[in-house]
Design a protein that fits this description.
Helix content of chain A: 55-70%
Largest sheet of chain A: none
Strand content of chain A: under 5%
Order of helices and strands of chain A: HHHHH
Number of strands of chain B: 16
Number of helices of chain A: 5
Largest sheet of chain B: 16 strands, antiparallel, barrel
Helix content of chain B: under 10%
Distance between the termini of chain A: 48 Å
Oligomer: heterodimer
CATH topology of chain B: Porin
Number of domains of chain B: 1
Distance between the termini of chain B: 38 Å
Strand content of chain B: over 45%
Shape of chain B: globular
């Protein structure tokens, strides 16, 4: 079993190093404006897009959840569905504005 | 293993108390009742599958799912009085450390990440009640693994996302907590704008003679059409096969909500080809061709009614498979007074 754990550890290190290579998705998907309200609206729309693209593959939007409940659900789904931190934040803004 | 899982449970309870002020644990899951008739033999299955999720700050998460299931059938299959048995199992109880978008480390008991059916389609998500014939390939012995797992998004771009999971599991024979000694992983490429995901899986089963299992999968949800297409292929020395499923909501678009759009039509075809029987593979002893046709109706408040008919063609005997069920999906805070 020891060699297997060694292999997994190496994979862990390699994947961790990929963080350097990865780039955020925001610049390609959203436009920045100077107004906070516009930002919030854009975030909500982008959050809806992210919800449809990721969560909508299996789930409908929940009927009524508090922001704290949404946060717990999103942390759960971040692990399950491998959402990025950015996806989590945008979907949080969409589900609990 | 029991001691380790007990320790995890203790940590979960303690942590819930410490972090109750900032993070709300939630209790989710499903209640279901399924009636089936397979080859003329009727059976009924009441099921409860609770899911507990306890965030501990932004980086730590404890999550668990159990499954308590009854199986009520006639004593002689198609005749005699009804007898019932109940089974309980722990599907997962894991502690996750979410380091960043690229790495999440999980330890404990977790769902084996082989292809997608095992992890992504629990009772309340799956379009058909019956699991695919090839389900046990890559997920034996119980669908769950006891050990450690690393997963996350390896690379994220605007138009594509590469995800991965890698794990190692120890042999556990404790009742309700079984797992195989195995290691493996999965990698998937997701194209969010197209709604397409492609992936491949591998498992090295390190007991009973050491066997390899490999698989691949594809899902497609076109953004404008309420169509879901899913397919898996899996191969092991014990056998190989595939399933292909299509599900369509009777609506013009995904945004349409009406009584008709709540109806979903499902079709699935499967082919299985037996190989050399291996211990604990739980695969059919003969080749099987099977099709299933189902109707699901999604009522408000997370209730779903489903019915399906299938026909299996096998040299061991052909059979009709009828299923009818109702599923209720629930979610509420596990801590009182935190709903709003």
């Amino acid at each position: 079993m020891k060699p297997l754990f060694s292999v997994l550890f190496v994979i862990f290190l390699l994947v961790g190093s990929l963080k350097v290579l990865a780039v955020p998705q925001t610049p390609a998907r959203g436009q920045k404006t100077s107004k906070a309200a516009a930002d919030k609206k854009n975030d909500g729309e982008e959050g809806e897009n992210r919800f449809r693209e990721n969560c909508g593959r299996c789930h409908n939007p929940p009927d009524s959840l508090s922001p704290r409940e949404v946060k717990a659900v999103l942390q759960h789904m971040r692990v399950r569905a491998m959402l990025s931190a950015e996806d989590e934040q945008l979907i949080l803004k969409y589900l609990a504005p | 293993m029991r001691r380790a899982l007990g320790t995890l449970l203790g940590l979960l309870c303690g942590a819930c108390g410490i972090y109750a002020q900032s993070d709300v644990p939630i209790l989710s899951g499903a209640l279901a009742f399924i009636g089936s008739k397979t080859g003329g033999a009727p059976s009924f299955q009441p099921i409860i599958a609770p899911v507990l999720v306890a965030p501990l700050g932004d980086h730590w998460l404890v999550e668990s799912r159990a499954n308590v299931q009854g199986f009520i059938s006639r004593e002689n299959g198609t005749s005699g009085p009804y007898n019932g048995q109940f089974f309980a199992s722990l599907d997962y109880l894991q502690v996750d450390y979410i380091a960043n978008s690229h790495v999440t480390v999980s330890v404990g008991r977790f769902l084996t990440p082989f292809n997608i059916y095992n992890e992504r389609f629990p009772l309340w998500i799956a379009n058909l009640v019956d699991t695919p014939i090839i389900y046990t390939i890559g997920t034996r012995t119980s669908g769950s693994s006891n050990g450690g797992m690393v997963r996350g998004v390896a690379v994220a771009r605007a138009n594509w996302i590469l995800n991965y999971a890698a794990y190692a599991s120890a042999l556990t024979t404790t009742e309700n907590l079984q797992s195989g000694r195995a290691a493996g992983g999965r990698a998937g490429l997701f194209l969010p704008h197209e709604g397409i995901e492609l992936g491949a899986s591998y498992q090295r089963f390190l007991q009973s003679g050491d066997y390899n299992a490999a698989g691949s999968y594809v899902t497609w949800q076109p953004p404008q059409i309420p169509l879901d297409v899913r397919a898996e292929y899996a191969h092991s020395p014990g056998g190989q096969g595939y399933w292909l499923e299509g599900a369509f909501h009777l609506a013009r678009s995904r945004d349409t909500i009406s009584w008709v759009s709540r109806l979903q039509v499902v079709g699935r075809v499967q082919q299985y080809f037996k190989g050399k029987p291996t211990p604990e593979d739980l695969l059919p002893s003969a080749d099987v061709n099977q099709f299933d046709f189902g109707l699901n109706y999604y009522l408000p408040h997370n209730v779903r009614i489903n019915g399906s008919y299938g026909r299996a063609y096998s040299s061991a005997g052909n059979s009709n498979i009828w299923n009818f069920g109702i599923t209720y999906r629930f979610l509420f805070p596990a801590w009182p007074g935190e709903h709003k």
